[in-house]
Design a protein that fits this description.
Thiol Ester Dehydrase, Chain A, single chain, alpha+beta
Amino acid sequence: MVEKIMNCTVKEEWVDYNGHLNDAEYARIFSLAVEELMIKIGIDELFRKEHSYSIFTLETHLSYLAEADQGEKLDIDLQLLDHDSKRMHVFFLMRNREGDLVATSEQMLMGMDMKEGRPGEFPESIYKQIETIAEKQKDMPTPKQAGRTIGIRRR
């Protein structure tokens, strides 16, 4: 089962000239979801300061599947697709309150040793939290949007 990460409401300033959520704001919401994931696994502000450790986003792929209007409430869920000692391959799902899939964001996240300014293994307490999520989700099917490439399909 997916992990509930956060919910939000589409703000007026996030709506574009087409009258719905601007494409950049989808990215903002998914970025906020990464921050919530960090907190969920134990990397909060205090942890970052005490351990000089954080998470960086290495790559992201957004799929826009439906429009979201001002005032619309959105839920963001997480599926952990894979992980190792330094990285998480995550998949966020944005749904409206009717449960319709609005957008997805596939991301590669990297643990960073901020003192060294380079990748660093997840601290043990953090890795245990990641493993807990992985164990709960081990039998979930891979979402159809995961692993997609961008290109024009030729017949």
